[in-house]
Amino acid sequence: QVQLVESGGGLVQPGGSLRLSCAASRTIFSFNAMGWYRQAPGKQRELVATITSGGSTNYADSVRGRFTVSRDNARDTVVLQMNSLKPEDTAVYYCNARVLTSRVAFEDYWGQGTQVIVSS
Fold it and tell me: Looking at the predicted structure, is the pLDDT value of residue 43 above 90?
């Protein structure tokens, strides 16, 4: 069973920064991709940023240029650096790891989530 443990959430003022970390219970090279999703109250979970095992990244338009996703292979950790935070970034942030099980199927693993609140 894969465990993903997030840390780094909290309360920050608009314009501030936070750094989220996701530690995996096994080598992150075993995942085809890892990333971050978020869910605000009353809204569906949405993609924030992903990074493949090869290092390719993808960002939601709303965070591109402000957030950076990266991998620390030595620590089996994925990091989301969030700068220039806005109140609309307030949400529970979830770490995701994905394993392709066939050409058309995959298996997702999720962390428990960490709360980010952007407010003055």
Answer: yes
- The neighbouring-strand residues paired with 81 are 19, 68
* 25 Rama class: left (phi>0) / alpha (psi -120 to 50) / beta: alpha
- Give the DSSP letter string of 87-112: GGG-EEEEEEEEEE-SSS-EEEEE--
Q: Which residue has the tokens 């569906």?
A: 44
How far apart CA 29 and CA 73 sit, in angstroms, is 8
Phi (first) and psi of residue 63, to 5 degrees: -120, -10
- Tokens for 55, please give them: 């290092």
Whether 85 and 12 have beta carbons less than 8 Å apart is answered as yes
Token pair belonging to 27: 């080598």
pLDDT tens sequence across 54-92: 999 999 999 999 999 999 989 999 999 999 999 999 999
d(CA 96, CA 43): 18
pLDDT score of 118 more than 90: yes
CA distance 47 to 62: 10
